[in-house]
């Protein structure tokens, strides 16, 4: 990491919803982390941990309940709708489902053209040339512009979604489970494309996923979420080599070893993730944690520095017993 100001600083971000019977869903609670310019941050956790909600709240596709989202120093949550339109060009999203995110009634040229319309790109030959360049950039052919989404495979449709996202030359992209619906071989192709675009276009990425092996392959940093809260965050090297939170250790233990026949020490979590309508008191992970004590039921654990934390490579963990948790060894 660098000591430069982050491109994006998420500070105390919370996203609550009301149910039909008046109860509150605590989807995201006090989310805090930075994203340095030009880096890829993985946001990981089980289904129901609040990852997608967090990504949409950061982009202000949802109106957050509390907190700040500073983009290059400006709090996007305080911008008017007119001011926000300029930031929409800088902040884009790639959706999880490459089929439902594309209008089936529009040709590819019109799908990408909608993004160009939003930033005032002129019509005519220049637009046709721009769309052809974007399709080639994501590994498709210019003649694909005249086709409809149903004429493509899942991987090709996701490439169209990526072309739409980069059409307006954004600085920051949220990739929301953007490879989870694809076959493994196609996943690798799309991941390589994202990595190439990140390097060549100087993009900053928030890569939302539940597969930690995919995150390790693509990302520079990782933020581990559970039930709307951050459990651990740091560089991928720190978190994968020295996980300090029991939840992170359990997630890493589920990654299969590449060598056939080798056995891995698995950490199996008991029960299911609790409901965000009635999260546990204190540490939200305590109901599934083998190291939980009575204090864990009373106190919300503050972030504390792990032993390998440095100013250049911060490593933080939200666990009051972090110093007592045994070092995790996968084999």
Q: Can you give a write-up of this model?
A:
The protein is an alpha/beta fold. The protein has one domain: 3-Layer(aba) Sandwich (Rossmann fold), CATH 3.40.50.300. Helices cover 28% and strands 21% of the residues. The protein contains nine helices and twelve strands. The chain has helices spanning 51-58, 81-90, 108-118, 125-137, 154-166, 184-201, 212-218, 236-241, 246-253, and strands at residues 8-18, 24-35, 40-44, 66-71, 74-75, 91-94, 172-176, 204-209, 221-226, 229-235, 304-305, 316-317. The strands form two sheets. The chain has an eight-stranded mixed beta sheet with strand order 6-7-8-3-9-10-12-11, with helices on both faces. It has a four-stranded antiparallel beta sheet with strand order 2-1-4-5. Helix 3 (108-118) packs parallel to helix 5 (154-166) and helix 5 (154-166) packs parallel to helix 6. The longest helix is centred in the middle third of the chain and has 18 residues, at 184-201. It starts with 7 loop residues before the first strand and ends in a 14-residue tail after the last strand.
Give structural attributes.
12 strands, 331 residues, Rossmann fold, 21% strand, four-stranded antiparallel beta sheet, eight-stranded mixed beta sheet
Structure, briefly:
This protein has helices spanning 51-58, 81-90, 108-118, 125-137, 154-166, 184-201, 212-218, 236-241, 246-253; strands spanning 8-18, 24-35, 40-44, 66-71, 74-75, 91-94, 172-176, 204-209, 221-226, 229-235, 304-305, 316-317. Helix content is 28%, strand content 21%. The protein is built from 9 helices and 12 strands.
């Amino acid at each position: 990491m660098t000591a430069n100001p982050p491109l994006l600083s998420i500070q105390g971000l919370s996203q609550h919803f009301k149910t039909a019977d008046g109860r509150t869903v605590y989807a995201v609670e006090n989310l805090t982390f930075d994203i340095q310019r030009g880096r890829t941050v993985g946001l990981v956790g089980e289904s129901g941990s609040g990852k997608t909600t967090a990504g949409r709240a950061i982009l202000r596709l949802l109106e957050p309940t509390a907190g700040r989202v500073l983009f290059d120093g400006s709090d996007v949550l305080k911008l008017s709708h007119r001011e926000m339109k300029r930031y929409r060009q800088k902040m884009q999203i790639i959706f999880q489902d490459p089929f439902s995110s594309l209008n089936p009634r529009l040709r590819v040229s019109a799908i990408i053209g909608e993004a160009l319309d939003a930033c005032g790109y002129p019509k005519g030959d220049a637009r046709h040339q721009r769309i052809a360049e974007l399709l080639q950039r994501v590994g498709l052919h210019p003649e694909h512009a005249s086709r409809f989404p149903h004429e493509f495979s899942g991987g090709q449709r996701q490439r169209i979604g990526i072309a739409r996202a980069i059409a307006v030359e954004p600085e920051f992209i949220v990739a929301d489970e953007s490879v989870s619906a694809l076959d493994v071989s196609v996943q690798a192709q799309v991941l390589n494309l994202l990595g190439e675009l990140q390097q060549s276009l100087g993009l900053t990425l928030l890569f939302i996923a539940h597969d930690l092996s995919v995150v390790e392959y693509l990302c520079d940093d990782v933020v581990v979420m559970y039930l709307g809260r951050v459990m651990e965050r740091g560089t991928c090297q720190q978190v994968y080599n020295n996980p300090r939170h029991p939840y992170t250790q359990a997630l890493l233990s589920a990654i299969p070893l590449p060598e056939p026949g080798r056995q891995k020490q698995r950490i199996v979590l008991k029960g299911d993730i609790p409901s965000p309508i009635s999260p546990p008191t204190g540490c939200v992970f305590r109901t599934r944690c083998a190291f939980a004590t009575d204090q864990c039921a009373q106190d919300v654990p503050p972030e504390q520095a792990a032993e390998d934390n440095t100013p250049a490579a911060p490593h933080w963990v939200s666990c009051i017993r972090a110093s007592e948790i045994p070092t995790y060894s996968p084999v």
